[in-house]
UniProtKB/TrEMBL annotation, chains A, B:
Residues 4-353 form the Aminotransferase class V domain. The keyword Signal does not apply. This is Phosphoserine aminotransferase. It comes from Thauera sinica. Belongs to the class-V pyridoxal-phosphate-dependent aminotransferase family. SerC subfamily. The modification N6-(pyridoxal phosphate)lysine is found at K201. L-glutamate binds at R42.
Length: 365, 365
């Protein structure tokens, strides 16, 4: 089979030229006589790979000095525990903004490690929007305010960057789970205390977790925080206290370089805006498909939608697959369909989806 | 450069045919039109990959029913915390046998989670041997006895399988860190309560951690154990509570199949015995090189040695590299040299090393 259009929510499509390069270099990286998988993480070859990956990421996100970049393991779900274990060492409570499945999971996990205050929630309305910051009720002295800037399952994305100074709480660090929208849009890192994300959407293969953390938030781990997940230890050892997931970091580095060749984050954001507009405009005008998210908070990355006749779901998926459009089934907690259109999905893929959607609706709608 | 002889302690050499297959399948796995890196972990393609990997591993190690196989993240160093967090939930103390750097690190980490008793230690003699089991002093009611069956840094390997029934304590589960010798020799899994290992020596790429755990040891996690690392949660979700390191698991599966093609663990053990004998016999008879480990406990996987004249170390490493023999520098805590000769190192590589060693000694010794 030739390559397909892969709309998986993650692990997800990667740039084809990244995959080609990885295949080409598999047995012999840059004349070293070794695969990247076979290299000691302490050898000069791999050190050059991880250092270039970090430098490229810093350039892409314009990460200011005063922030450390950590390559960790366990994905965003492990970070749901690792973050409170690191940040609640000297504080009692943390505040959470709940906008969907992922932030709900995060706040539940945090309760193991301290007091959790729900600063704002859109759960009453089914998590189809992001509560305006003016209404966030912070606790008196939270260690941080937790946000999930893009809810992969619900398809809800923050249309603003949380800036707590606007509500007079600029002293409180914002933690952001950006697993599914990091590197897809320009952000101002200085607004956050900590940004994290599993790699398997916009960064690279599953198995590496990216953490960007401000210096002053490092060094406060709780006594029972595993050493391997103590930000102080990870930072001081340049992400090599334990053996890092070397190959996943290498592929992430290839993705960063690909992104630079695309023109960087601003350029990819413009394409992401165009891709999302193409799909949402079609859905809205179709008279057959429906996206139920607050239009102001629709995700550019994950587009859940429903058919006008849900009895056609299985037929839809079978025909889509036959047309080379894969992994369109919605998350079981939401139902319907979901198209994830991350950085590596070209507009041609979105156009192919729209063409299929139009044809299907014309025949069955 | 052509492929080299890579003696890295880990990440380490992989079978060349595994790397070739991974490269060939990079853009399109089995006609799916996707790279394994791009597949949803919940799709039928990846499910078939992880199920086959587990089935092959069970066959290779003859894992009895009543044991679960978990694919986790964080490496052996994270397990140093994860294991006590899971096994000390209902007990107060655990016993540790210290035979080198890795078991020492493990017992230090465990102290965060409970009382640690040193059942036996070879530290007084510089960790060059394994204390005979008859001398192990277990505490009254330990949750487990921790062992590291091969010390990668010191080059010390258990010449016996711990069988606590022999000292009248068959009720106590043995935990074994087999990171650097798993799948290199036939073991009797039923003697252990839990076996674990980072993948980056004999299994596959760094980033996946293998845990084989007896059913009765699952379900006792401490309250502050991160959900992602709770054996109950990981087992009930078939290692997919969080997104698993899919590509690393895929490559591990290719290594398992390669190992089956080699004839399985007994066949590879015979080769490992031959490789180790070739190298140790040469070192012992050389009159120039020296291995300082108790001959009964010499590792078949990691062979540390010293030159007769340590002033020649840099020259030795430079000439070895020029001859295509890489990563021979000893761990900084030990000094000298170290040749790691895992499953994927063919005897031709060991012979090339011996030839070089002989030639170097003849010229410089």
């Amino acid at each position: 089979m030739s390559r397909v259009w892969n709309f998986s929510a993650g692990p997800a499509v990667l740039p084809e030229e990244v995959l080609r390069q990885a295949a080409d270099e598999m047995l012999d990286w840059h004349g070293s006589g070794m695969s990247v998988m076979e290299m000691s993480h302490r050898g000069k070859e791999f050190i050059s790979i991880i250092e270039e990956a970090e430098a490229d990421l810093r350039e892409l996100l314009a990460i200011p000095s005063g922030y450390r970049v950590l390559f960790m393991q366990g994905g965003a779900i492990a970070e749901n525990a690792i973050i409170p274990m690191n940040l609640l060492g000297t504080r009692r409570a943390a505040d959470y903004v709940v906008t969907g499945s992922w932030s709900a999971k995060s706040e539940k996990e945090a309760r193991k490690y301290g007091e959790v205050n729900i600063a704002a929630s859109s759960q009453a309305g089914g998590c189809t929007t992001v509560p305006a910051m003016a209404g966030w009720k912070l606790s008196p002295d939270p260690a941080y305010v937790f946000t999930c800037t893009n809810e992969t399952i619900g398809g809800v994305e923050y249309p603003f960057e949380p800036d707590l100074a606007q509500i007079g709480r600029g002293d409180v660090p914002v933690v952001a789970d950006m697993s599914s929208n990091i590197l897809s849009r320009v952000i101002d890192v200085s607004r956050y205390g900590l940004i994290f994300g599993g790699a398997q959407k916009n960064i690279g293969p599953a198995g590496v977790t990216l953490v960007v953390v401000r210096d002053d938030l490092i060094g406060h781990a709780m006594p029972h925080c595993p050493t391997a997940f103590d930000f102080r230890i990870v930072a001081d050892n340049h992400s090599m206290y334990n053996t890092p997931p070397t190959y996943a970091i290498y592929v992430a580095g290839l993705v960063f370089r690909w992104l630079k060749r695309q023109g960087g984050v601003a350029a990819i954001e413009a394409r992401n805006v165009a891709k999302a507009k193409l799909l949402y405009d079609f859905l809205d005008g179709s008279g057959f498909y429906e996206n139920r998210v607050d239009p102001a908070c629709r995700s550019r990355m994950n587009v859940p939608f429903f058919l006008g006749d849900e009895a056609l779901n299985d037929t839809f998926l079978a025909e889509a697959k036959a047309a080379g459009l894969l992994q369109l089934k919605g998350h079981k907690s939401v139902g319907g369909m979901r198209a994830s259109i991350y950085n590596a999905m070209p507009i041609e893929g979105v156009q192919a989806l729209v063409d299929f959607l139009r044809d299907f609706a014309a025949r069955k709608g």
